[in-house]
Amino acid sequence: MATLIVGGDKIESIREALFAQGETDIAHWIGRKHGDKKSIIPKNTQRILLITNYVNHGLADKIKKAAKRQNIPIEYTRNSRCYLEA
Fold it and tell me: pLDDT tens across 51-81, in order?
């Protein structure tokens, strides 16, 4: 499954948890750069993981609308592996 992680600076623990679940195709947008808002969701994305405490509101809104339009499930989490596993 291809996952797009939006937000978060240090996501190694989250990336490891996703690899443990069998996910191998993981893309990451930091979510703080102005240019991130212009980025386009990769076509092979099957899930979006939005890290809420490290992303600007404009990008979060854009991702939410694009995910709905493309019928991609979106999960909201904080920047911690324990929140992802819960």
Answer: 887 788 888 899 999 999 999 999 988 765 5
According to DSSP, residue 43 is labeled T
Pick the CATH number of 2-85 from 1.20.120, 2.40.128, 3.40.50, 3.30.420: 3.40.50
The candidate with the shortest Cα–Cα distance to 50, out of 3, 1, 7, is: 7
pTM recorded for the entire structure: 0.85
Kindly provide the b/e burial profile for residues 38-63, where b requires at least 16 CB atoms within 10 angstroms of the residue's own CB: ebebeeebebbbbbeebbeeebbebb
Is the separation of the CB atoms in 58 and 37 below 8 Å?
yes
Report DSSP state, residue 54.
G
